[in-house]
Amino acid sequence: MTVTGTWKLDQAVANDAKVYVHLPDHGAQTNTARYEVKTVSGWREKTVKQPGTGNRWVYIGTFRFKGNVPEVRLTNITTDGTGNQDIAYDAVAFEPGKWNTLPEIVIPKCNPDAPETEFIDNDMQKQPSPLGPAPLVLKAPQAPSSLFLNAPENCGETSQKGVRQCTAIDHNIGKYQAGSAQASSGWRQAANDAPLVSWCNEPSVTGYTLKRREGCHKLAVLTRWEKDGKTIGTAVFLVREETLLSNSASFEQRMFISPMSISPELGNVTLDYWDALCTANCSSSLSGSWSGLTTWTPAVDSHTASATRTFTWTKPTSGTSEEFDRGTILKFSAASPAAAGAVATKTPSWSFFDEIQCDNNLAVANSTGCVFAKHIPTWSASTDKYPPAAAYYWVMREGLASHPGSKKHGTPMHRLKDIKEQRKNCNTICNKTGTDAWVAHPEATPDDKGRVQCDEFPFAASEESGGQTLTNGGGCVQLYARQEPDDTWRLHEDENYNPPTWTEPCGRASMPGQDNMDAGRGPGLQGFYTKARVLNGKPFYIELPGYEGCTLTEVYVPRP
Q1: How far is CA 212 from CA 99, 322, 336, 407, in A?
Q2: pLDDT digits over 495-521, tens only?
Q3: Does residue 261 contact residue 236 with C-beta atoms inside 8 Å?
């Protein structure tokens, strides 16, 4: 038999109310008590675990009533009921108030003459070190001849019987620079090649760092020679790879090599072999010859040698893209007869996986180009041109539990290029009929043509759109934008829907039509997709200048 308990307040509630249910210390056994609350937009459900310690009040949520009489009901039918547990019916309490969870942001008036933002490739992102032989762990300064004691290495037989050459790499180059008598004062001393990536020379840039089209990789390459199991000598070189991509099927890599230390027992050490592997449909060739001598004398030479390789995507078929793995092979030879012999190998000294992405006629019409796939570009929205929309994006990015598009939280959005899917998302979240249909808030400020439109975030053109998981936009945070008499703007909760819990996957706002059409899907964002070559399904962050570094609890005018 179904038993339904109903609680109804004796008066209407003007705005919102927090709702609490009381649970006794006995007879409260079910874990799936299904409370329903009648709100301005219909019945809302909240499942409560009734078992607990002692008599207590349990908060079940804040609901919007907007002049209606609050009503709560509870039935003894549960999703997992077997008829052997009690369900408790006790008191219900309402705490009226305007429980606005939105920060009071004073949004500047718009500047219609402000330019659209342009993508500038200046975001350096540190990457995990490329794979290779494990780095050395040095607990104290060591002489060159003892650098490899107990170090993990990659060893290979040379052409001379009994002689082996072992290699390790280490991205902590500072410990080899300190106290080194042979280290050069600069990376390019005596090298005539100009840099491909100017910022790679900065001491603060270490390890493997990428911009969208520029890469910098710094490491120490340590080579040890041994004969019959006994070390002959060691050499440590600083290696630097600069990679420059472009809107082309070809890209360049420039390598700079200089010595840190060479054991005198080795005699002169020569760069015997430099090669670079590239996965299928990618070729590599040396461009010209080495600049600077590729032979170094122990304790004397500190010069830098450099050379350039050109990589080419060999099958740039229109409408396709590829991600390429790359590997670098470095081998040295020593002049000492005791360490003579070359190593024949095609195993990379270190490798980059899925590092470079090239496309033809996908990101940009009638264009071929390459970017670093592991670099996540950032779109900077125009907070001057579209102030209410930009403020709304920031509030959603910071307030939603998923933080869509947040670099700080490492939660990028992903481009959705399919027009049909975009329309489906838009029609789902901005549904104009059916349950929780979107209706423009009467106090929302229209654009110059009198238009107020539904603006969703995350964007309909992203894989994070609420339309991917919801059946209508009622499950989003509901807001509207209103312009004040002094031409500044405010964001307000739309009281025609339930107040936000900030566990929602999306936002839905009544926004000036022009802001909605241009800010999140117009020339600024499309231009970013083009310049950063963001393909379908690929990640990107969103940045809101003037708001970055602020928190939702602050009351402020966005910084200029």
Answers
A1: 44, 16, 44, 15
A2: 888 888 899 999 999 999 999 998 877
A3: yes
Other beta carbons less than 10 A from residue 150's beta carbon = 7
Torsion angle in degrees (nearest 10) through CA of 189, 195, 199, 204: -30
The edge-to-edge listing of strands for the beta sheet with 16-23 is: 56-64, 16-23, 92-97
CB 170 within 8 A of CB 135: yes
C-alpha closest to that of 544 among 308, 380, 400, 423: 380
- Rounded (10°) CA dihedral 520, 521, 526, 529: 60
Dihedral angle over CA of 498, 551, 411, 388, nearest 10: 60
State residue 90 phi and psi, 5-degree precision: -140, -155
Could you tell me the CA-to-CA distances from 76 to 3, 56, 538 in Å, in that order? 6, 20, 48
| Amino acid residing at 507 | G
Coil vs helix vs strand at 201 = helix
What is the distance between the alpha carbons of residues 124 and 127, in angstroms, rounded to a whole number?
Answer: 10
Cα atoms found within 13 Å of the Cα of residue 314, Cβ hemisphere only: 8
Cβ–Cβ under 8 Å, residues 434 and 472: yes
Tokens of 100: 């606005």
Domain ranges of the chain: 4-97, 126-372, 378-543
Distance of CA 261 to the CA centre of its chain: 39
- Tens of pLDDT, residue by residue over 411-446, are 999 999 999 999 999 999 999 999 999 999 999 999
Question: pLDDT tens-digit profile of 65-111?
Answer: 889 999 999 999 888 777 788 899 999 999 998 776 777 788 999 89
Strand ordering across the sheet containing 350-360: 295-296, 269-278, 320-334, 350-360, 368-372
Write the secondary structure of 518-530 as one string of H (helix), E (strand) and C (coil). HHCCCHHHHHHHH
Q: pLDDT tens for residues 445-493?
A: 999 999 999 999 999 999 999 999 999 999 999 999 999 888 999 998 8
d(CA 278, CA 167) in angstroms, rounded, equals: 21
Q: Residue length, the chain?
A: 560
Of 76-85, 237-246, 247-256, 452-461, where does mean pLDDT reach its minimum?
A: 76-85
In this structure, how many other beta carbons lie within 10 angstroms of the beta carbon of residue 144?
23
Q: 399 and 552 in contact (C-beta within 8 Å)?
A: yes
Rounded CA-CA distance 380/122 in Å is 12
The pTM is what? Answer: 0.81
| Cα angle 6, 50, 93; round to 5 | 45
Question: Which stretches of 412-479 are DSSP H helices?
Answer: 419-429
What sign does the CA torsion over 257, 258, 261, 262 have?
positive
Strand, helix or coil for residue 308: strand
DSSP state of 423: H
> Three-state secondary structure along 223-284?
EEEEECCEEEEEEEEEEEEEEECCCCCEEEEEEEEEEEEECHHHCCEEEEEEEEEECCCEEE
Torsion sign, CA atoms 98, 102, 104, 109: negative
Cis ω on the peptide bond leading into residue 458 (within 30° of 0)? yes
534 CB-near residues (< 8 Å, 6+ apart): 363, 377, 415, 528, 540
